Amino acid sequence: MSASTQSVGASVKPAASPRRPGRSELLRRLLKNRGATVGLGIISVYVALALLSHVIAPYSPTLGALELRLKGPSWGHWLGTDELGRDVLSRLLYGSAISLEIQVTAVVLTMLVGVPWGLLAGYYGGWFDEVSMRLIDVMLAFPGILLAIGVDAIIGGGLTNVIFAVAIVSVPEFVRLVRGVVLGIRKLEFVVAARGIGESAPAIMARYILPGTVAPIVVQASIRMATVLLFASSLSFLGLGVQPPTPDWGAMLSNARAYMFLAPHVTAAPGVAITIVVIGFNLLGDGLRDVLDPRMRGS
Amino acid sequence: MSDSVLSVRDLKVQFGVDDRIVRAVDGVTLEIGRGETVGLVGETGSGKSVTALSILGLIPSPPGRIVGGQVLFDGKNLLALSAREMRRIRGAGISMIFQEPMTSLDPSFPIGSQLREPIAEHLGLRGREATRVALQMLERVRMPHSDRVLCQYPFELSGGMRQRVMIAMAISCHPTLLIADEATTALDVSVQAQVLSLLKDLQDQLGMSILLITHDLGVVAETCDRVYIMYAGRIVESAAVDALFREPMHPYTQGLLAAIPSVRGDRPRLEAIPGELDAAPPVLGECPFAPRCPRVMARCHTEAPPVREVKPHHDTACFLYG
Amino acid sequence: MGRYIVARVLLLIPVLIGVSIASFSLLHLIPGDPAVILGGSQATEADLAGIRKEFGLTDPLPVQYVRYVSQALHGKLGISIRTREPVADSLVDHLAFTLRLTMLSVFISMVVGVAAGVAAAMHHNSWLDSTLMVASLTGISMPGFWLGLLLLLIFAGTLRWLPAGGNSGWEALILPSVVLGTGGAAHIARMTRASMLEIIRQDYIRTLRANGIPEFLIIYKHALRNALNPVLTTVGLQFGYLLGGAVVVETIFSLPGMGQLLINAIFSRDYPIVQSGMLLLSVTFVSVNLLTDITYALVNPRIRY
User: Fold this and answer.
1) Neighboring chains of A (3 or more beta-carbon pairs < 8 A)
2) Letter string b/e over residues C61-97, b meaning 16 or more CB atoms within 10 A of that residue's CB
3) Is pLDDT above 80 for C118?
4) Do C64 and C150 sit in the same domain of this protein?
5) Beta-carbon neighbour count of residue B279 at 10 Å?
6) What are phi and psi of C159, to 5 degrees?
7) Which domain holds residue C37?
8) At C209, which CATH number?
9) B116 vs B128, B199, C222, CA distance in Å?
10) Which residues in chain A touch residue B100, judged by CB atoms under 8 angstroms apart?
11) Residue C151 within a domain
C-alpha cells in the first residue's frame, strides 16, 4: 500500500534512542540468513583447521623428499607434492594458521588505531578532524595494493612487516567509516540533550555513540578480514611478504608458478583455499549487514 | 444513475503476509458518474488506497492479489484486460495522482522530459508538438514561469509545484477519470486549498470525473458530490455529501463527524472513537465495526450487514436500519 | 559548475602535496644512509661524498623536498641507481601501458558488471539471480593473480590460443584485462543489482506505471539511470583498484608495465624508480578521481548545489 496515511488523531512519535534488539535475537536472525550461515560455517572450519594444523598435518611443511617432487594427488599425498617434494596438504594447513594470524592481527591492529581515531575526529571536529581527513585522503590517494607494496618496500618483507603493511593500508577506511557514523549520531537529539545536561565527553562517547558504531564496525571488520587476506597473499606472491620456506598461501602460488605447466595441481590448491576463505568472510559480512541494519548502505 | 464512468462491483483484494491473509478490500461496490466528484473516506488501513490501486492494476503482485469482483470502465472489465491494454488506459483513460509529491517524480530527468513521456505514449506526439502540449498543461495547472519549469529538475521545485506537475501529467491525455489518492495530505493547508480548487476547475474545463481518496472529511465537504465511507475493507455508508453530513446513519460515520472539532466552540470535548482498527482480519460473519460500535447489538456479532439503500440514494451497511 | 570544479581542484592540492611528501620521504625512511643506498654497497668514501654533493643530500630536508618537487615538475624524475640513466622516459612508457590495460579493464568490468547486475535484479530471486550472485561473490573473492595463473594455464598452456606474455601488442592485453575485468565486473554487478532493487521500489516508478509508460522504458530509461548513480561514483575507485591489480597481474604475464618496473626496482633496491613510480601512479589515480567527480556532477545537477 502507499506510504503511511495519517489516521484521525495521529500521535507524534517521540525521538528515541535507537532500540537495539537483544543478542540472542540477533544471533537467531543471523542464523536464519543463509549466506551468513554458510559464511560462518566456512570460517569455523578454517579456524579449526588453522588451530589444529600442527596436530593434523600428516607431514612436515618444510621438509621435503626430493624424489617425490611434483607428484599429483595420491593416497599418500592427498594434494600431491610441490617442487621440493613437500606435501601440499600439510603446507596448506600450516599456511592456514599463518593466514589466520595475519588476518586477526592486522584487523585488530587496524581497529585499535582506526576506531579511536575516527571517534575523536568525528566527535571533536575542528582542526584535528580536518588534518586527519587530509591525511586519510593522502593515504587513499594510493590504490590499496600499491600502498601496501610501498610500505612493504620501506619496512622490508617478512611476516611481521606484512601484517604492519596491510594493517596500515586498512586504517583509512575504518577511520572514515567510524567518523561518518559518529557524525550522524552526534546530531541526533538524545546526544544533543546529553550534552545539554552536561554529561562529560568520554561518557557520551562511551554510552551513546560507541554502541551505534558497533554494527558498521563489525560488518567492516568481517569484510576487512577478506581484503587483508587478499592483500597479504598478493604481497607474498610478489615476493615481498613472507619468506621461504614459510608456507604462506601466496608464497606457495608464487613458487608453483615456475612449474605451473608441469604440475597444475600445486597451483590449484592454495588459490582455492584463499578463494573459499575470502568467500566465507564476504558472506558473513553481507549477512551481518543485512541483519544488523538493512538501511546501512555503506560506501 | 446518469452515465456511469466507472463501476466497481464487489471487489476483493487480499495480501498474503507469511501464512496470514489480510483481506484488504472485502467486497467493495461503488459507482462514479460522468463529471462527478466522488469521495472515498476511511482511516489508515481501511483499504481505500488499495481499492484505487486495484482499479489501475497497480497492486504489487506478490504479495497482493485481486481475488474477486469487476471493475467496469468504458464497457470493459479492467481486471480482465491484458497488460498492454491496461497500459493504454493508465494515464489516458484513467489517471492517478499520489500523496508524496516529493518522491513521485524521477529526480534525474527535467520536468519537460517527464511531461512529454505520457504525451508521446498516448497521444503519439513528439518533439515540439509534445513540448507545446506540455507547456499548455503546465499553464492549465497554473504553474508560474511554466517555460522555465520545463527545463528544471524536480529538486528545484517545491512540494506544491511538484504536485501541480503530477496533475499536469495526469490530465495531459484527457482522462475520463482522475483518481487522487490523498493528493493533498502532504501539503500545507493553504497549498492544499489551491490544489483542490485547481482540481475542481480542471474538472469543469475537461468534464472529467474525480475519485478523491482522503481521510479528511473537511476536504470531502468542500469538493465532493457524493461520498463513500470505508471501514476495514468494506463500504459502510454512501450518500450525497449534504445528506451524509446532515444525517449520518452508520455509527462509524457518526463517530467520524463527532470527532471533528468545531470552530464555533460549542463542543467542549473531542469525542474519539474508542478502540483501534487493528490488523487482525475481521471475523467473517460479523460486522467489522462491531468491536468498537457504541450501538452494537447481538445480531451484529453473528451476521455481516449488507449494504442497503435505506433512504433514496443513501446506503448503509448496518442492522440498525433493518 | 565552475565553482564546483574549482572547489574540487583546490581540495586536491593538499592531497598532491601530501603524496609528493610521501614519495619524497621514501628514500629517507628506509633504514640506512641515503648516500649508501644510492651508491650501492661497493661505493667508496670518495664515491659517497660525490653522491652526497650530486644529490644535495647534505642540505636540510625541506630544501631537498622543494628541489625534488621542482625537478619533478620539470619532468626530471630521478636517475636509476642501476643504469645510471634518467628514469622519466621509461616510467612514462611503462605507465602508458599500464594505463591502457587499466582502462580496458574498467571498460570491461562496467559493461559486464552493469549487464549482470541489471539481469540479476530484474529476475530477482530466480535461478539466474542466484547464479549471477554466486558468480560475483566468487569473482570478488578470487585473488586476481590466481585467476591470472589459471587462465594462463588454460589458454596459453593447454589450448595454446594466446601468447604467454611478453609482447605489448593488443593481444597481450586480452588475458590480463579479462582477469582484472572479472574482479571489477563482479563488484559492479553486486552494486548495480542492489541499487536497481532499491530503485524499483521508489514512488516515481509507480507514477510512471500509473501514467502508462511501457515497462522497458521504466526499467532501462528511468530505473537504470537512477540506479547507476551510486555505481558511477565508484568508477574512480574502480580505476584505482584495477590500477593496483594491473600492477600485480602484469608480473604474471611479463608485461612491460609499471608492475614489472616497480617490483624489479624494489628488489634491486633501485629506489629512485620506486619513488617516482609511486608518485606517478598516485597522481594518475587522483586525477582520474577528479575527472570522475566532475563528470558525475555534470550528469547530476543536484550535486553542484
Assistant:
1) B, C
2) eeebbeebbeebeeeebbbbbeeeeebbebbeebbeb
3) yes
4) no
5) 9
6) -90, -20
7) 2-73
8) 1.10.3720.10
9) 10, 21, 14
10) 2-3
11) yes
B100 touches chain C (CB under 8 A): yes
- Total domains, chain C: 2
Distant-in-sequence contacts of A202-207, Cβ < 8 A, 24+ apart:
A205/A119, A205/A123
The pTM of this model reads 0.84
Say if residue C96 is in the same domain as residue C244: yes
C22 vs A233: CB contact, 8 Å cut-off? no
- Judge whether B177 and B32 are in contact, CB under 8 Å: yes
| pLDDT (average), residues B123-144 | 90
A228 touches chain C (CB under 8 A): no
Q: Is residue C41 part of a domain?
A: yes
CB contact under 8 A, C211 and B88: no
Instruction: Find all residues with CB under 8 Å of C135, minimum gap 6, and list them.
Output: C116, C186
User: What are the pLDDT digits (tens) for A77-105?
Assistant: 788 887 788 888 888 999 999 999 999 99
* Contact indicator for C58, C48 with CB cutoff of 8 Å: no
Q: A138 to chain C, minimum CA–CA distance in Å? A: 5
Task: Locate B53 and state its grid cell.
Answer: 490501486
Check CB contact of B108 with chain C, cutoff 8 Å: yes
8 Å CB contact of C301 and B104: no
| A243 at interface of C, judged by CB pairs closer than 8 A | no
Grid coordinates belonging to B211: 475519485
In tens, the pLDDT along C147-174 reads: 988 888 887 766 655 555 555 567 778 8
DSSP 8-state class, residue C270: -
User: What CA–CA distance (Å, rounded) separates A241 from A229?
Assistant: 12
Q: Do C206 and B104 touch (CB under 8 A)?
A: yes
Same domain, C120 and C55: no
**ipTM of the complex model:** 0.85
User: What is the rounded distance in angstroms from the CA atom of residue A141 to the CA atom of residue B21?
Assistant: 55
Q: Tell how far CA C42 is from the center of its chain.
A: 37
Q: What digits encode the pLDDT tens for the residues B186-226?
A: 888 888 888 889 989 988 888 899 999 998 888 898 899 99
Tell me which chain B residues have a C-beta less than 8 angstroms from the C-beta of C229: 108
Burial of C134 (0-12, 13-18, 19+ CB in 10 A): exposed
- Establish if A4 touches chain B: CB-CB under 8 angstroms: yes
Helix (H, G, I), strand (E, B) or coil at B240: strand
Q: Which of C149, C262, C278 sits opposite A253 (nearest CB)?
A: C149
Residue B100, chain A, CB below 8 Å: the answer is yes
Provide the grid cell at A175: 577511520
Nearest to B137 by CA among B127, B128, B147: B147
Q: Which chains touch C (3 or more CB pairs under 8 A)?
A: A, B
Task: Indicate the residue type of C41.
Answer: S
